[in-house]
Amino acid sequence: MFMAMTSLDDAGTDTGPAMGPARRQGPVAGEPPVLLSSLLAELIPDGRPLPRDEAVTLLRRSLGRIQNRVQQAFEAHEITGLPAARWLASLTDTVMVGIRAYTEATLPPAPVEKPWALVATGGYGRGVLAPSSDIDLLFLTDTGMGARGKQAVEFMLYLLWDLGLKVGHATRSRADCIVDAKGDATVLTALLDARHVAGDEAVFQRFAKAFREVREEWGLRPFLVAKRAERQQRHARYGESPFLVEPHVKEGRGGLRDLQTLYWLARYAFNVQRMPELVGPATPGGGLLTGEEARAIRRAWDFFWTVRFHLHIVTGRAEERLTFDLQPVVGARMGYTRHGLQDGVERFMKHFFLMVRDVARFTRILEPAIERASLGPPAVVPASDKALTEAGFALADGKVIAAPGHDFTLNPVLMLRIFRMARDRGLEVHPLAFRAIVRHARHLSRLRGEAAASAEFLDILTGRDPAIWLRLLNEAGLISRLVPDWQRIVGLMQFDTYHVFTVDEHTIEAIGVLAALERGALNEITPVASELIGQLQSRRALYVAVLLHDIAKGRGGDHSELGAELAQTICPMLGLTPEETETVSWLVLHHLMISQTAFKRDIEDPKTILDIAEVVQSPERLRLLLVLTVADMRAVSPKVWNGWKATLLRELYWRVAEVLAGGLSVPERDVRVARAKEAATMLLADRPKPEIAAFLELGYPGYWLSFDPETHARHAAMIQEAKEAKAPLTVRTRVLESRAVTEVTVYCADHPGLFSRIAGALAVAGATIVDARIHTMTDGMALDTFWVQDAQGGAFEAPHRLARLAVLVEQSLSGRLRLREEIRKLKREPARLRAVTVPPRVVIDNHASNTYTVIEVNGRDRPGLLHDVTAAISDQGLQIASAHITTYGVRAVDVFYVKDVFGLKVENERKLVVLRRALEDALETAERPGGGGVATRAAAGMA
């Protein structure tokens, strides 16, 4: 098993797998020289080089033995990632030296030979190598490569390529290196890692001396600016947040490359080879690191290298992204098993993100410290701002720092106050101050529950740009010191494809959405929530509720219920009043109610609205719940929110609000039907009266309550046109840009399996069903309406795609479209998503509606899912009145409102048992081998 990893301020928590057998920390002493002697003796027996083909075979066999030796020791847990990387690089050196010697022995001598050196650069130059990494080489000369040297370089490169190695190479003189380094930060960085491997070492030493001298002449600033720009571009490409649930181990924020950047800066500025050389007052920079920080850097290096080694071995390629399918595999290989309520993969990823956070901290505090040390100590000057000075702060480099004589240890509240003071003045916290905060964060625990600390924290939470400052507090470990339960969600990921961030990062993102709503930045996207947030009387309670809404995740059980209980303890500790505490607890308990109802229930059903109104009871709580829901959803991931979901939430809010205001949004059913018919009649006034009368007799009450008058009028015109044309099938589409959906209306004779056939055709057309209403008219005709989107969550609106959609529906209903074959061709989900399990579940509810049995089906999304489920429902003799289709990552949550053939609920226990079994059987096909899945929610059906 691998060594337990401990974050800087998380000692004492469960931080890794248990200790296993003793491990070797590197290669056996003297092994490379012995290996080299043996290799040279075989390549050049008795001074005569082998024929090239035999040499390639020998080298390939030797390289394979080296890689296998390291891999076996690594997989036997004898060594961890960093020693393995060093060992592999060291053993690879022997092959490179052997190739150089074989080349020299094979090529004919020249009268005059210019000396040259074989130099390792990049990662190989640092003396670390992953199993599938490139090998970067520099052929270095003093003044230029001679004719025999060029021949040798060509000979060696072809030999390396024949061995199947991925080689990056360059041939440069000493002067070329310096010129190229000055003009290209990438070349400069590679040369910082340069290491002599073979050839004339004096050539390399002359270069190293000249390179060191020109770096001193250039100064750190140009290199620092270049590396910062490079990092910014890299983070923009691989993710600005270090807490993405499928992180890039090498290039992502807080990953290996960020650690390497710190090393490069230290190497450039102080010519150090290892980070421990910065520990202690007598070291370059005057002690930039403590011993514990240096050990934490080492742990992070080793942890990331261990993960990287496993990724390369498991995939057989230079894979650097820790995707869903690889996370359980790598976690298990590193010894992470289930511990309490946490699965092994969740523990592994939590520790990964704790390491990422440590690296993010080091970047924030060490990089500016290196810059400052290279320039000299900062000048700390009293602030002209009297309040800042009286609070115990000063300015250095234009940033806020603790004034001399003010100690974070003696007065821990200063660690919070410095962020508030900096925020209010539009300043930054000085890196030296941030470093001191990280080192002394544990002292803030003494102020837990004290008024001064709670007031400072609440000010930051509810003030300007809270997400920016809360991320800093979280990075420094301060939130966990004030709210101990927060620590349990730091770095906690949910092993699904719905959530993009870890729980703590999602929470901070949601608080940022609240602030954006308040300043009007989301007026066009979420107009109702943007308006309501300005009407709230319980603003502080709302912010704390968002902070705590997911605080109980990872504990097992219902996190809403557990979180509501925790809120009862945490809120008073933060200084909230009993009334605010009760409001926060209620909001945490019900924070999923609005979204689950809007997306999984029929909001046209009066009981749905009345049930919510009974729970909410007050307009203020309804406003709070709606705003919290919007913030929560917007913070899940950029792809979760769309116009259709916004519409459903808005309509649900207004219906419940009218009930709470004493309105008649849910009057008696017959009254509502009569009003709907009156409104339709007014819009159809220019039509012949017999035609209007005939139309009014067509719809059952459920039809009249499902659409607005304008839609009723359109249906009347469509039905009349179909009658006059004697058309057996009519398909109409309408793009609703405000809702980001396309409405597809199908009018034809009703028959069993109609829903499945239409759904299948829509799937083949590439349309994603988000909602559906199924109506059989009094004359036996079906009037089915589907709301669909494209794979990107927008309206399905391209004219040629709409035309194809209509054709496919007609072909499906006529039996000319082979749905089964076409659905098989649909895009399957990526392999990385198949590791995410979705346990099938069926919930049958006879209490959610007064007139329908509500069936909720949870299963893995895939082509044909709707067909299998709806076929099972039809086989039980049930009629579907409406369907609500929702997807959370790869999880499909489909809800159907059904009746039996007599128009009644299904309440017979025997029938319910049979129905449940049939639906479970339908869902099981998603979990069987070959069941597959699709990344988009293209609900499918087949004849």
Corresponding CATH superfamily of the domain at 729-927 = ACT domain
The average pLDDT is 86
Morphology: globular
Class from helix and strand fractions: alpha+beta
What does this structure look like?
Its EC number is 2.7.7.59, 3.1.4.-. The structure is a single chain. Helix 1 (31-43) packs parallel to helix 3 and helix 3 packs across helix 5. Among the domains are: 31-218, Beta Polymerase, domain 2 (2-Layer Sandwich), CATH 3.30.460; 483-660; 729-927, Alpha-Beta Plaits (2-Layer Sandwich). It is α+β, with helices and mostly antiparallel strands and 943 residues long. Helices cover 52% and strands 11% of the residues. The strands form three sheets. An eight-stranded antiparallel β-sheet has the order 8-9-11-10-14-15-13-12, with helices on both faces. Strand 12 and strand 13 form a beta hairpin.
